[in-house]
Amino acid sequence: MKQLIETIVKPLVDYPDDVQITMDERESRVTYKLSVNAEDMGKVIGKQGRVAKAIRTIVYSAAGSHHGKRVFVDIID
């Protein structure tokens, strides 16, 4: 899943080397925390959050059941 997020985000940003994804797994949820360069934040979020919503939709769909855990994508600054 981490690789999927990288594949989606890296072509969108000007500083692909600054893309970092960490995974936080708990009992009933898995959270992927996406961090990008401050200058690229607008590109990842998009107008009215459309790009961020699209990224989340793709990840949620690809995750499927993910062993009964809910999957979340957080964009952190």
Automatic annotation (TrEMBL):
InterPro entries: KH_dom-like_a/b, KH_sf_prok-type, KhpA. It comes from Sporosarcina pasteurii (Bacillus pasteurii). GO terms for cellular component: cytoplasm. The keyword Cytoplasm applies. A probable RNA chaperone. Forms a complex with KhpB which binds to cellular RNA and controls its expression. Plays a role in peptidoglycan (PG) homeostasis and cell length regulation. Keywords: Cell shape, Cell wall biogenesis/degradation, Chaperone, Cytoplasm, RNA-binding. Forms a complex with KhpB. It holds the Pfam family KH_KhpA-B. Belongs to the KhpA RNA-binding protein family. GO terms for molecular function: RNA binding. It comes from the Bacteria. The lineage of its organism: Bacteria, Bacillati, Bacillota, Bacilli, Bacillales. One of its GO terms (biological process) is peptidoglycan biosynthetic process. This is RNA-binding protein KhpA. It is found in: Cytoplasm. The keyword RNA-binding applies. SUPFAM superfamilies: Prokaryotic type KH domain (KH-domain type II).
